[in-house]
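Please supply some protein, with fold tokens.
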Amino acid sequence: MSASSRYWNIWCISPKSESVGYKSCLVPTAQEFVQTIANSQNGDIQATLLFYFHAKQSTVNIISRAQAGLCLRCYVSEPILKACQKIANLFSGDKYFTYQDLLPFVLNDDGKKLIVVDSDHRTQLIVNEKGDFNTSAYKFFSVKVLQTFKSDSDFRMSLDNWTYLQTKQNPEIKDYLSEFGFKHLSDWALLNRTRPKQLERLSQRDRVLVEVFHAVYRRDRRLEQLKGARKCPDPSMTQLQEMLNCLLEKNVIINTTLDLINALKHVAIQLRQYDIWSTKEPLEILEPNTGNYILRVDLPTYSLNELDLEQQEFLKFLHDSLNLAVTIAIEKQIHERITSLQKSKNYATLAKNYIPGLQLYYCQKISLKDIAPKLGMTSWDQARRVLNPGELLTKVRTLTVQQLFDTILHEVEQRGLTKLPPQPDYLQTLAEQIEAFVDEEIFTEAAEEIRAGKNRTLNSLYAQKLRIYLEQIHKKGTKS
């Protein structure tokens, strides 16, 4: 079992290195531990280290757990550093800040202390040479990344991609970015504050969507503000139905409220990218006296240049391709699952209940335990083996990543953005970026919903698309 030096070299802040602000430091304890494991076992070094780090003290002693964690802390320091550089490159076009300004929030581990987490994975504990431990007052971000990484889940992204996602979502980095105007607004707030300049970038159909949204939602929003309401809530079913009626009058046909929500969220994605690529700052600010968003007076009046338009075009292509890929993947994987059940000796008679089972689970939010008697199944365990929403999610994710990879690779080849044939390093990097993208946009939230148990909300984009597909099947069955 070969071992990478990433497991015993940690990237940490170095004030003396003024040109870059960081340096790589050798951690001898981590190097010795990794090489000992590598020489004594066969298998995946990362999986072994994760097993040690998360193991109970009754199976692995606390010193070994802490040393395994130290190796993993070294490993994640690299994607933490790269994430800061990517964030600064994306958001700091006018050089208001640099990636060095972000490092103290997340690259705060020098690898000099042994750390474990308690049984509930919430509290960081400092371990001394004797194996005694105390609660750490100082929280290491690298340890937090490991605390939240689901290494034993059927659904998981790579540790590198998980680290990048956690760094990007770090609350302190978000607060810091908000000081420069990069405040994250909800989709409804973005749609509510859309102005004519932004509408020019939308298709005719999307413009009508925004106009109808304003006619209904903004009208009610003004009344809410008079009552003191500050945040933009989700549109109500009454509002959505009124929007559908208004759209029908304008010859824009959208069949269901779920379809309408998805269409509005797609427009919000375009508006969010407009904010990022045109001004790098919000187009409007909150006026304290009225509670309304007003256009900033300091904004330049120039339009997007050719490069900005090309970036926006590609981002729209990316999201359109993702939506199509996940829709196709859902349909294909459900069809394959039904076929598999029909060929099974044990579950052939239950194949006809697969679609109704998914409808109960995703549309009515009924638990597998309560679904079992409704569909003539003998137990919760049988319902889980037949429906297995976690396995369906994993397979849909895998197929989505594969389809999106093929689509994007074809696109970049057509645009001449890569060598022909593409280099292996380029393909690997592209695959990792696509995996991180689809997880952040869809599957991380979807997986968390399934793991939530009785409190699951099932409002993720994946759940919405699955319900749309199930509704289409129901309509076809009703017509036939």
